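User: Could you check the structure of this?
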Amino acid sequence: MKHTFYLFILSVGLLSCHNQTEKAVDHSAVLKTSDNKIKLRKLEKLWVTGDFDGDGNQDTLYQHNFSRLTKTEIDSSADPFENDWDSFSKWFYDQEANVYLKINKTEQETLNVGSAQGLYCLLNIGDNNADKKDEIAFVIDYLDMSRVNSCVIYSLCKDKWTLLKQFGIHEDAFNFTSNESPVFKSIKEYLENVNGQWVYKDYLQEGYDKPEDVGKMLPLKLDRCK
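Assistant: Sure, the predicted structure tokens are below.
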């Protein structure tokens, strides 16, 4: 997780775009490594509900953090508040941490997010393209120092997760100054629901059809699965 000081208050990712987060974590656990002691905390994992496969029933999509080193689920991880960045990122690299999303149905395909510490958010944006399935939007919390990132939008197309859209965001959208991670139902200034219509803005200013639209919040329009 990248550390940004704003008004001398640490702002971090590992935020939620669903209606709940896991309970407060215990900072007392210590993992001994060859070079130092890493303080751990329970890893917040996001989840979201919706009809993602179009069968008319509510599904639950869960975030999983998996260690390819130990071949087990990662339930506790290095604490971003209690470790310096180098130690924090090294812990995830040493674990060969991988993130994936899985619906609570064994027959549905897993969406492999890749090497990361987690997600900044996981959001159900509804049935934007009128194909009777809800789409999901999320932002990956990579193990890097860059604050420029992307929001990606996926849908289940013929039982396979398919990327429908990607646009740039800035991670300042996830800054917070409270002692608890806030609940996000949108990505401020980049993906918002206005009067029932999702609108977006591309931080990288790509994909605009008209020059006069650059920098504006535009209606989100997604193609149907091919």
